[in-house]
Amino acid sequence: MTPRFVRREDDAAGRRPDTPIEITVDGAPVAGVAGQTIAGVLLAGGRHAWRQGPTGAPRGVFCGIGVCFDCLVTVNGDRDVRACRRRALDGDIVVSQSRVEAEES
Ligand code: FES
Asked: Ligand 1 pocket check: which of 1, 48, 73, 84 to mutate, most ligand atoms within 8 Å of Cβ?
């Protein structure tokens, strides 16, 4: 998947409000737009991986439709949230996850 953020002025419908939001990802603020998924905010911000698989390999969006569970994050303390399905809300606290870590604990 190629991340691409369509700017408001380039939007074909031309009526998008683009309400800015800010989420915190692993302690760092990340800007987004209301209506984006958490994965959308991360991809638009240039981050392509935010989880580690069992071998430590980086994971991010694979299917983008909620099927593969590669994009799991912790949101506001809730583990295993699919970033591609969860709409980002202003003030969300997102923490990346690692299966390596989970298997050790
Ligand atoms: S990218 Fe497949 S479930 Fe989110």
From this structure: 84
Q: How far is the CA of 21 from the centre of ligand 1 (A)?
A: 22
Residue pLDDT tens, the chain, 105 long: 556 777 777 878 777 778 999 999 999 999 999 999 999 999 998 999 999 988 989 999 999 999 999 999 999 999 999 999 999 999 999 999 988 855 555
At 27, which CATH number?
3.10.20.440
d(CA 5, CA 20): 13
Is 6 part of a structural domain of the chain? no
Q: Which amino acid, residue 48?
A: H
Close Cβ partners of 105 (under 8 Å, ≥ 6 residues apart): none
- Ligand 1 atom at shortest distance from the alpha carbon of 68: 2
The pTM is what? Answer: 0.84
> What is the number of the ligand 1 atom nearest to the C-alpha of 82?
4
